[in-house]
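At this stage, I wrote out one protein's amino acid sequence and its backbone structure tokens, and that material follows here:
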Amino acid sequence: MNSWTALGDPTRRTIFELLVEHPCSVGELARVLPVTRPAVSQHLKVLRDAGLVANTRLGKQRIYRVDPEGLASLRAELDRFWGKTLAAYKVAVEQSSKEEE
């Protein structure tokens, strides 16, 4: 699953937004979300597999944080998407203007 798709789920998007604010453990995330710890772990696995989050071990816990490289990759995907969209829009507007003449 790519980073774009991984953020399509509202719960994963919320988890990602919380991690943007500060690194958290699964337990910390589960306390503020309406889902179980195992569900949070599954969502974090999807985000980690998509390259959007990374974790480090701190004692018995894993602390999750946004991965800057994954975030840069997501940004590049969004930039490509908007570039293509704006170029297509420009062509459509120019074509429409020519048809009206």
Q: What stands out?
A: The domain at 3-100 is CATH 1.10.10.10 (Arc Repressor Mutant, subunit A).
